[in-house]
Specification:
Helix content is about 15%, strand content about 50%. The protein has six helices and 22 strands. The strands form five sheets. Strands 11, 12, 13, 14, 20, 21 and 22 form a seven-stranded antiparallel beta sheet that branches. Strands 15, 16, 17, 18 and 19 form a five-stranded antiparallel beta sheet that branches. A four-stranded mixed beta sheet has the order 1-7-6-3, covered by helices on one side.
Length: about 400
């Protein structure tokens, strides 16, 4: 009877020993997997154990367990039952390793694969990627994705979601072949104007863009309302705007278009002490345009203007002839234009002198000879050159805006 009680007491102590070893599971393997002094008597191949989330599984051995190693205790919880039996509980999806040692150095390894119910994955993919055609199938502890998606980004996102449910994902999703779409036509109306500050002053109008004093090309997106729109309307009604050119550019989205206005003039190039040589120089406006429609209905416009202005201040004298110089402005812009908006390029003023005739009192009133008596006043003036580019309405524009 005493012997039986001692044997029961010894079994109880062994259970407590195993329980203590499991509760104190290591999250990293000890150096060299130190084994009992007797060494390893037999090593069995790793056994693959597949489990669903929250599932319970019991592992048992024909020997008493002396030591257990669990690689990741966030995925699986171990609960000792007897010296030769342990219950596993799956906590979350993933894969981990369990190594078990027994008496006399016996060892066994387990690969634990945990996945969530496939119905949960199917539900989420249907809700979040409803526009994609996805088929989800379970293959052992893996999940296979097949079907078609529109973009590579969607393919990667779907695989990322599936990995939260299954430790292994076989991604057979293919990209849809997009049908060729004819590019939409685009019409752009360019208008090139000059306006005199002297004329504006005579009509109590003020140039609304002070930045033009810099003499450098600037730009601004104009709406149908605002200070600049009101100024342009008023100057137009008072006939103060001098129209230089109004080219209409027709192209398709994604295709570069260009226009050019102006001419050529002789330009003197320095050439040693003997003076210089003359070559022809382009003057006027040259512009490259690249329109692209955006999904939000706006028109993205790449603009590369080059403006060559005749500058009398840079004049060069060749023998008895005086040739004016050229002042160049260049820019490279990328702007988005919404409905009713246009692009304005400005900041290229030129100085000039106005000669104004003024009658002389009494003498100018003489019959027949009066027109010969007058004096000339010189007035300094500044002329603003500006360009407005506006999308012209096309049938395809409404279609693009509704994409």
């Amino acid at each position: 009877m005493k012997r039986l009680e001692l044997k029961s007491l010894a079994s109880l102590l062994l259970i407590l020993l195993v329980a203590t070893a499991v509760q104190g599971q290591q999250t990293e393997e000890p150096d060299g997997f130190a084994l009992p002094e007797a060494g390893v008597k037999s090593v069995s191949p790793a056994v693959q154990v597949e489990m669903e989330l929250a599932e319970h599984r019991v592992l048992s051995w024909p020997f008493h367990v002396t030591r257990i190693f669990l690689a990741d205790d966030t995925l699986v919880k171990l609960e000792p039952m007897t010296p030769s039996k342990v219950r596993l509980r799956a906590l979350k999806s993933g894969s981990t390793r369990i190594n078990v040692w027994g008496e006399n150095g016996v060892a066994q390894a387990y690969d634990i694969l945990i996945h969530a119910p496939i119905t949960e994955l199917q539900k989420i993919l249907k809700e979040e990627f409803s526009e994609s055609e996805i088929t989800v199938r379970q293959v052992a502890a893996s999940v296979m994705l097949s079907g078609e998606v529109a973009e590579q980004n969607a393919r990667e996102n779907i695989e990322s979601v599936a990995r939260q449910f299954f430790p292994r994902v076989i991604n057979n999703l293919k990209l849809k072949i997009q049908p060729e779409v004819e590019p939409e036509p685009v019409k752009l109306q360019a208008s090139i104007f000059e306006v005199s500050h002297y004329d504006l002053k005579q009509h109590d109008l003020k140039w609304p863009l002070e930045a033009s004093r810099k003499g450098e090309m600037q730009h601004e997106v104009l709406g149908t309302r605002g200070a600049v729109a009101e100024f342009l309307q008023s100057a137009y009604e008072k006939k103060l705007l001098r129209k230089i050119a109004t080219p209409l550019i027709t192209t398709v989205e994604g295709r570069r278009a260009a226009f050019e206005t102006g001419g050529q003039m002789p330009l003197v190039i320095a050439s040693g002490s003997q003076g210089g040589r003359v070559r022809l120089q382009q003057w006027g406006v040259r512009m490259n345009l690249l329109p692209t429609r955006l999904n939000n209905g706006k028109l993205r416009l790449g603009v590369q203007p080059k403006i060559n202005q005749i500058d009398v201040a840079k004049a060069t004298r060749v023998e008895s002839v005086t040739l004016p110089g050229i002042r160049t402005h260049q820019n490279d812009l990328l702007v988005d234009l919404g409905e009713g908006e246009s692009l304005m390029l400005y900041g290229m003023p030129m100085e000039r002198v106005i000669r104004e005739k003024e009658d002389l009192p009494l003498l100018s009133d003489l019959p027949l000879l009066g027109e010969s008596f007058y004096k000339t006043n010189k007035i300094d003036d500044k002329v603003e050159l500006f360009i407005i580019i506006a999308p012209a309405q096309t049938p395809g524009e409404k279609v693009a805006a509704n994409r």
